[in-house]
């Protein structure tokens, strides 16, 4: 059988359809307008420097049934509104539907005055004070901490050093072993002189981070994605969804230089989150100190944090109550796909409610 | 080439093996269809060109903004811009070839040849002997793209141009609006008999390798180092681009092999979109193998390190210029920020101790100097 079977009339038909969609697409693209950065009403209850701590209001007006407030710690490399992208694609809303009282840290956009913020400043400083603020606001002694991606790594470090303040720990797409063979980012960073990088750049530009991420699958992410985009251009709703996601993907804060330096050297180069030895303000992170229940949620097709990088958490933490939830999807799909919405927030809610 | 030829024969849709109409009838059908639809073809091709031109323009602009602003990265950018344009080019080519009654096997083969030519050109460009004039242009371009201050310093002969005069005529980086071509032609080696032997001679590198002398010795050394670091970055980038060109060439070969001998059970590709998707799959497979190899990861590190060394030296020189204009330098501002952060940390610790002494059980959730009320978060900007 021939590998390619084309007929001239099919070719013309395909091109005609492509052009029609392009024509309609230009109209729909222009109609997109302003895109929201999060859709659920929230109140800022604490700010410090560029960090803002938000408390979400349940759109249904229902009071939380889980007694322990949940604090979401997102990664520094992207904006946290990924967890609340659209009404029907909102992890935050999904969690509130499970009876959880949800708070979220927005790390803001660091500028050059933040260049010397360290991991210690973020974890023992901002994160710790946000935990205190949540406890004070909710009238609770502890929080349920939900860490996402790099924010998950931070949450592991935090819980290791402040176990008394964390009732339950949930991690999503969080790397623990940075040296697995399928971790492309981990391999790329090995030969980079991180000191030279940070000393030369100061803060690490978000655009540079994005360029690196795109190069994990460059043909698909830089080229094919926008060819495929034409398929949905004649559908205004799909165009809006696409552009909402596009906005989020490239809405990337710069990385505070010193924090980036330690994170990359300790985690990516020396694999210290797994091996031990991360020094935060004179205290050494040891994941065995984590004794609270831990739920680890990872995506099976994650090219940024492969499951092999996340699953070693089970043996690394000291908790005897460790569970995993795997999702058939990618690093981003875990927040936004319909199947993720149906699986992930309910799983987290059920697990937390059983331990309240 | 053998793979290409077999690809042509195996993708001919007139083959009876695919259960389609006999070749003769099929050809008549095509001829008739061609005659009747010629005008329609022309119109569609023109329409495709117009609409896709817009899309291609969008692509190029978007990718231009996305890519690093260093000239050494241009070819790398071009590589992926090409990858995006490939589908649009492919549509136009296939539409035109359809109008010419060209067999599908030939269309595929010609399309792949076009890709191969592009990647071979990219490989050749990045494996040619080092060209110092281009290196110079690349470096000054990087200044121009890096910000107006640098553009002014090196291209316009504006206020910063005066600064270079301190070097005198002996340093290629000095003077107003430096012109590398004029400078090169004025140099003494052009009068040496058999000057052809200097064909691959890098005059800038030659001067950059000389130690500085006299009152401006340190400044000369600083500029010389800048040139050396740029040359190193350019060399590493060329190696990197050559590697990416090899990825493209291998992907073309793999695709040709696929077309010639598709795996049993694979459904045929029945649209341009499916062909393109398959092409992307093949490229990603080849790239993923290369990108996780020791060769690539080492090269990647070398490119990034070379770029950062160059940028670091740029920073040093920028500070020097700012200092001469009585402006605060980056290193001075950094030093102040460092001291401020250290003070804040001390302040937070002291506040905790004061709270303990006062008998406050729980530390207040407020850093030293933090606002008492929530305020609107800062927006993106001022990176």
Provide structural commentary.
- The complex is a heterodimer of chains A (356) and B (383).
- Chain A is an alpha/beta fold and 356 residues long.
- Chain A has helices at residues 8-30, 91-97, 119-138, 150-161, 184-189, 194-201, 206-214, 218-232, 236-249, 257-269, 272-275, 307-310, 313-316, 333-336, 338-354; strands at 42-48, 51-56, 70-73, 84-86, 89-90, 102-106, 143-148, 166-172, 279-280, 283-284, 294-299, 322-327.
- Chain A contains 15 helices and 12 strands.
- In chain A, strands 1-2-6-3-7-8-11-12 form an 8-stranded mixed β-sheet, with helices on both faces. A two-stranded antiparallel sheet of chain A has the order 4-5. Chain A has a two-stranded antiparallel ribbon with strand order 9-10.
- In chain A, helix 2 (91-97) crosses helix 15 (338-354).
- The longest helix of chain A is centred in the N-terminal third of the chain and has 23 residues, at 8-30.
- The radius of gyration of chain A is 21 Å and the shape is globular.
- The N and C termini of chain A lie far apart (61 Å).
- Helix content of chain B is 70%, strand content 0%.
What's the structural blueprint in terms of helices and strands?
The complex is a heterodimer of chains A (356) and B (383).
Chain A lengths: L7 H23 L11 E7 L2 E6 L13 E4 L10 E3 L2 E2 H7 L4 E5 L12 H20 L4 E6 L1 H12 L4 E7 L11 H6 L4 H8 L4 H9 L3 H15 L3 H14 L7 H13 L2 H4 L3 E2 L2 E2 L9 E6 L7 H4 L2 H4 L5 E6 L5 H4 L1 H17 L2
Parallel strand pairs in A: 3-6, 3-7, 7-8, 8-11, 11-12
Antiparallel strand pairs in A: 1-2, 2-6, 4-5, 9-10
Chain B lengths: L1 H9 L12 H44 L7 H26 L4 H24 L4 H15 L1 H9 L2 H5 L16 H6 L17 H6 L8 H44 L11 H20 L2 H31 L5 H29 L25
Helix pairs in contact in B: 1-4, 1-10, 2-3, 3-4, 4-10, 5-6, 5-10, 10-11, 10-12
């Amino acid at each position: 059988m021939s590998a390619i079977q084309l007929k001239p009339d099919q070719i013309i038909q395909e091109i005609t359809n492509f052009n029609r969609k392009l024509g309609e697409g230009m109209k729909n693209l222009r109609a997109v307008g302003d895109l929201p950065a999060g859709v659920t009403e929230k109140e800022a209850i604490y700010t410090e420097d560029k960090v803002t701590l938000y408390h979400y209001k349940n759109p249904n007006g229902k009071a939380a049934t889980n007694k322990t407030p949940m604090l979401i710690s997102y990664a520094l490399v992207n904006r946290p509104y990924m967890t609340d992208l659209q009404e029907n694609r909102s992890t935050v809303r999904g969690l509130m539907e499970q009876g959880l009282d949800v708070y979220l840290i927005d790390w803001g956009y660091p500028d050059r005055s933040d260049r010397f913020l360290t991991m210690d400043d973020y974890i023992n400083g901002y994160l710790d004070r946000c935990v205190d603020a949540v406890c004070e606001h909710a009238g609770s002694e502890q929080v349920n901490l939900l860490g996402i991606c790099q924010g998950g790594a931070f949450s592991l470090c935090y819980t290791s050093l402040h176990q008394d303040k964390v009732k339950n720990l949930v991690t999503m797409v969080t790397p623990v072993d940075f040296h697995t063979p399928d971790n492309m980012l981990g391999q790329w960073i090995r030969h980079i002189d991180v000191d030279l990088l940070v000393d030369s750049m100061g803060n690490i530009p978000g655009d540079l981070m994005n360029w690196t991420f795109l190069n994990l699958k460059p043909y698909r992410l830089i080229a094919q994605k926008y060819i495929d985009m034409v398929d949905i251009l004649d559908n205004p709703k799909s165009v809006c969804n696409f552009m909402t996601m596009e906005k989020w993907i490239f809405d990337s804060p710069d990385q505070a230089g010193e924090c980036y330096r330690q994170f990359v050297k300790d985690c990516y180069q020396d694999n210290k989150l797994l091996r031990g030895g991360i020094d935060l303000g004179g205290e050494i992170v040891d994941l065995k100190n984590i004794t609270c229940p831990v739920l680890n949620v990872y995506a099976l097709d994650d090219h940024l944090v492969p499951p092999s990088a996340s699953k070693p958490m089970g043996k690394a933490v000291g908790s005897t109550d460790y569970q995993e939830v795997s999702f058939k999807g990618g690093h981003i799909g875990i927040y936004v796909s319909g199947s993720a919405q149906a699986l992930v927030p309910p799983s987290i809610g059920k697990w937390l409610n059983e331990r309240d | 080439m053998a793979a290409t030829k077999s690809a042509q024969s195996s993708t001919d849709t007139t083959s009876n093996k695919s259960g389609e109409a006999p070749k003769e009838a099929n050809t008549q059908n095509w001829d008739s269809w061609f005659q009747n639809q010629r005008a329609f073809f022309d119109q569609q091709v023109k329409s495709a060109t117009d609409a896709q031109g817009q899309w291609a323009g969008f692509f190029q602009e978007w990718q231009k903004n996305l890519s690093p602003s260093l000239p050494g990265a241009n070819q790398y950018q071009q590589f992926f811009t090409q990858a995006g344009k490939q589908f649009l080019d492919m549509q136009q080519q296939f539409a035109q070839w359809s109008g010419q009654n060209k067999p599908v096997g030939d269309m595929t083969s010609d399309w792949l040849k076009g890709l191969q030519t592009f990647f071979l050109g990219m490989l050749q460009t990045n494996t040619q002997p080092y060209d110092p004039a281009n290196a110079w242009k690349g470096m000054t371009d990087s200044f121009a793209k890096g910000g107006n201050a640098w553009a002014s310093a090196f291209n316009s002969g504006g206020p910063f141009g005066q600064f270079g005069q301190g070097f005198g005529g002996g340093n290629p980086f000095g003077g107003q609006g430096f012109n590398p071509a004029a400078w090169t032609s004025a140099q003494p080696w052009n009068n040496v008999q058999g000057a052809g032997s200097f064909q691959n001679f890098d005059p800038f590198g030659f001067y950059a390798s000389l130690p500085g002398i006299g009152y401006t010795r340190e400044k000369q050394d600083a500029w010389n180092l800048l040139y050396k670091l740029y040359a190193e970055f350019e060399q590493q980038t060329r190696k990197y681009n050559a590697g990416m060109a090899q990825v493209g060439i291998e992907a073309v070969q793999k695709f040709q092999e696929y077309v010639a001998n598709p795996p049993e059970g694979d459904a045929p590709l029945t649209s341009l979109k499916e062909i393109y998707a398959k092409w992307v799959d093949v490229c990603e497979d080849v790239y993923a193998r290369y990108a996780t190899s020791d060769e690539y990861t080492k090269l990647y590190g070398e490119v990034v390190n070379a770029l950062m060394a160059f940028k670091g030296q740029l920073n040093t020189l920028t500070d020097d210029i700012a200092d001469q204009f009585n402006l605060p330098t980056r290193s001075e501002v950094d030093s102040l920020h460092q001291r401020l952060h250290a003070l804040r940390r001390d302040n937070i610790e002291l506040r905790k101790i004061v709270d303990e002494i006062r008998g406050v059980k729980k530390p207040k959730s407020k850093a030293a100097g933090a606002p008492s009320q929530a305020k609107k978060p800062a927006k993106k900007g001022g990176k």
